[in-house]
Amino acid sequence: MYETDAGKRLQQLAGRPYDLTAPDALTAAGRLERYVCRAGSLRMLYSMQRITDEVLDALQDLADECRLVEQFKEMRRGAVINRIAGWPSENRQVLHTACRDIFCQNPAAPAATAQAKSELEKLKGFLDDVDSGGVCNADGKKFRTLIHVGIGGSDLGPRAVHEALQAFGRKDKDVHFISNVDPDDAAAVLEKTDLATSLVVIVSKSGTTMETRANEQLVCQALRRDGLEPRHHCIAVTGKGSPMDNPEQYLRAFYMYDYIGGRYSLTSMVGLVTLGFSLGYEKIVEFLHGAAEMDLVAEETDIRRNLPLLLAVLGIWNHNYLGYPTVAVLPYSQALHRFPAHLQQCDMESNGKSIDRNGRQLVGKSGPVLWGEPGTNGQHAFYQLLHQGTELVPVEFIGFLRSQRGEDLEVAGTSSQQKLIANLLAQSIALATGKEDENPNKYFPGNRPSILLIGNSLTPEVMGSLLALYEAKIVLQGFAWNINSFDQEGVQLGKALATRLLACMTGSESQPQGLESKLLKAACNTG
Amino acid sequence: MYETDAGKRLQQLAGRPYDLTAPDALTAAGRLERYVCRAGSLRMLYSMQRITDEVLDALQDLADECRLVEQFKEMRRGAVINRIAGWPSENRQVLHTACRDIFCQNPAAPAATAQAKSELEKLKGFLDDVDSGGVCNADGKKFRTLIHVGIGGSDLGPRAVHEALQAFGRKDKDVHFISNVDPDDAAAVLEKTDLATSLVVIVSKSGTTMETRANEQLVCQALRRDGLEPRHHCIAVTGKGSPMDNPEQYLRAFYMYDYIGGRYSLTSMVGLVTLGFSLGYEKIVEFLHGAAEMDLVAEETDIRRNLPLLLAVLGIWNHNYLGYPTVAVLPYSQALHRFPAHLQQCDMESNGKSIDRNGRQLVGKSGPVLWGEPGTNGQHAFYQLLHQGTELVPVEFIGFLRSQRGEDLEVAGTSSQQKLIANLLAQSIALATGKEDENPNKYFPGNRPSILLIGNSLTPEVMGSLLALYEAKIVLQGFAWNINSFDQEGVQLGKALATRLLACMTGSESQPQGLESKLLKAACNTG
């Protein structure tokens, strides 16, 4: 990326980035109106970035020289891109987009979309049976609660979107999540749940995820304690042929395929079984539709009209050229309170890499640290550092003009929703323009870039678009850095060492004087 | 800090930090056992830091030269340290420690502790009345739910500790939180709550917090809609003499004082009313006791025996000398899932500053970006970047040997709690030592520092200690950077701009062609 002509030009341009604190800097030359990118019902205002038309042109050239859109198209059409050339690797297609490519006659990856449609049909039938009582508990009672057991990609995404769309949830349905191997996580959920009328969805692609299988056993123990038969309550979401693909142990099995990575699996059965139970089948189709629309936008070559690509290259400008090590995603929507945690996973697990797709050490930086909490809450928490700290943090604000639930009240002349939007926009201005002041403690340096991502209302369809927007952004950035965004070798060493520590605990460790034993002793020495 | 002798020595030492990847690097010279610091029932293992005895000695000298412990002592005894010399400022004492200095005969700040004791007595009486039914609703029914309305310091801390100690919560009591001005936040809580048997605690020191007062009105509207009288349900936690200090509008008022900042207010009535309702009075006394004990530890001059100070100076070593811009706090305890969000606020709002206590621009960096999520969940999310990414992130791990609820099960020969601890320790080793591999994708560079903070079990007392540990760490780092950690001028500009945007929305803006109006139009243009 750095060696391309565009990359070199960007390096030069980064020496004197656009000054957002100059008079009329945000509005000069129709900038505010021109620097808007639309996709579906989302629009991104990016006047508050430290960019000029020249920078945008160079970013376009970078996108072209790195073939970002072409690579995205190849991915959608089934190219084997989950690999490191010359080394043993997963060697797989990357086809999460196929899960929602169900609305057109000629899907980009027909076989994968056919599999997705077949699972959707199964799900529709199952949800109908649950609603009608055709599938019910041993006493003939309808299931009204679902416990979702998974971790990482099988937890953060489903949880984030469940929270985001609770306003659309059916009143007679409850959903709980268990993820952590910490036994208190399962215990807290099981304590408050009526297991007799609960479905339990166990989600693990491999069928061997340590945390998930341990939590499954904790739930099964609780079911049996209540005189319930686990296989009448438990549903498997897993890879075909995995140890969990066993009709004798589960009421149903829904499949995910090896071309879908955990952190990209929200629009597969990993997310849809639970969301379908809570929202109903029609709403998950709307959710998929929003995602499918955004996937098409990501194939547009003009960065000014391709929202995911624009978000991706602006992120690269901030991270690789202006040198900011982190990025904050700050939704002005309480419903999105767990969306940053999902993005943190999807982004950092995909792009937290140090070698390129040929196994060579990267020259520059790959993915940043992504973090965030909802506004306005954050304004009363960490925004002090955003405005006046010594660490500079580019911000991606997300907000909606209308609330989901429509319950509001005018206080001091304005509604809460108006206050929310006013604060959202105000923060973007404040970070960009700063403020001079004689008192050094009231001085704001400004020139802290942000984007504003605005929608009309957070519906299931918009949630789908927002998800696909960020998934595509992450993938496109990975292409620019020339890394494999789809493996996660960095999690293996910890797993291997944990196994050795467990061996120390059970006394089966072969080297009782090793580092693991010593650390365990020091940690447990209650002295 | 940089100009001190110790500061200069540290700069030199940072050029060749200790190599954690060398053979036996963690265990050499009894390092693993020696690099342990204890306080109460917490112990910190810090062998996995890139330090030597020489670095520790220099950090001790830095602490001494900057008078860190003396300044902490002065704070606890009522020095006016919330100020910028030569400029208008809040000019206040900083006495959150006085709230828990209730266990000794001679408290460090007697007047403030007397006020804390008096509020505690009031609270005890009130909680007794609620339990006995002496305070009840209009129909004579007992209150069984509490809705806590606050934001920032009046929300994140109480929420984090409520979640952390839910295992100790009384079964007949429920607590909900409303914080965001997003009207969906209140609507979601109100929808699921029986208001007739609910107390509503409104928390705002100034009595004018925009979000909190708007949410109060939303709750009052809902109470009236249900035929309930707000003043029979609402409790004020506020500054004496604030607009909320009004017995005609509230069932009770509990006071916080101007010497307690919002983000340090957890052990004042801001946290204790809600925690007392949920846990009972005895448990909050245990919580205060844990905090009081840690405050005393922070007065020890030897960094090797002063846990908060050691945590503070190790953080400075990583941030200012080794140059890491962020720090991750990763609790291996699902109960602590919101503790990083509280610390993020407390740390970044305190130390996200750019001028020193004399109003001069800082030479080096002040506070880092603090972020985190619980393990093992994070292992399946962002740990890929921690192990193999191009951004280096020092980690503060927190874990406990025993679970809170005691519900566990052996799966594949070990309990979930054992798996949790094994993973915690394994991550610390993996980050430090790394791993050589011929395959570049399986290579782990190591030398990524962490500390392990271990307790026996997360009880109310340990939670108090953990809170006070981090509060003291933050304050001590602020002293080292010579900044005022107790004001938050950086939040003012956004507030002022939000007011102007609201004026644009209601048509009362005097400059309808200004930036605010234009941005509002661009954001709302649904095109």
How would you characterize this protein structure?
- Chains A, B: Catalyzes the reversible isomerization of glucose-6-phosphate to fructose-6-phosphate.
- Two copies of one chain form a homodimer.
- Chain A has three domains: 5-89 and 289-489, Glucose-6-phosphate isomerase like protein, domain 1 (Rossmann fold), CATH 3.40.50; 108-281, 3-Layer(aba) Sandwich (Rossmann fold); 491-524, no CATH class.
- Chain A has helices at 5-13, 31-34, 53-65, 68-76, 110-132, 156-164, 183-191, 210-225, 269-279, 281-297, 307-321, 339-351, 383-388, 416-433, 460-481, 492-505, 515-524, and strands spanning 36-39, 42-45, 80-82, 92-93, 145-149, 174-178, 198-204, 234-239, 252-256, 326-332, 369-371, 395-400, 410-411, 414-415, 450-455.
- In chain A, helix 6 links the parallel strand 5 (145-149) and strand 6.
- Chain A has a six-stranded mixed β-sheet, with helices on both faces. In chain A, strands 6-5-7-8-9 form a five-stranded parallel β-sheet, sandwiched between helices. In chain A, strands 3-4 form a two-stranded antiparallel ribbon.
- Chain A is α/β, with parallel strands linked by helices.
- In chain A, helix 6 runs antiparallel to helix 12 (339-351).
- At the A-B interface, helix 7, helix 8, helix 12, strand 11 and helix 13 of A face helix 7, helix 8, helix 12, strand 11 and helix 13 of B.
Low-confidence stretches of chain A: none
Order of strands side by side in the largest beta sheet of chain A? 1-2-15-12-10-11
Q: What is the beta-strand fraction of chain A?
A: 5-15%
Q: Could you name the CATH class of the largest domain in chain A? A: Alpha Beta
CATH topology of the largest domain in chain A: Rossmann fold
InterPro entries (chains A, B): G6P_Isomerase, G6P_Isomerase_C, Phosphoglucose_isomerase_CS, SIS_dom_sf, SIS_PGI_1, SIS_PGI_2
Family (chains A, B): Belongs to the GPI family.
Subcellular location (chains A, B): Cytoplasm
GO molecular function (chains A, B): carbohydrate derivative binding; glucose-6-phosphate isomerase activity; monosaccharide binding
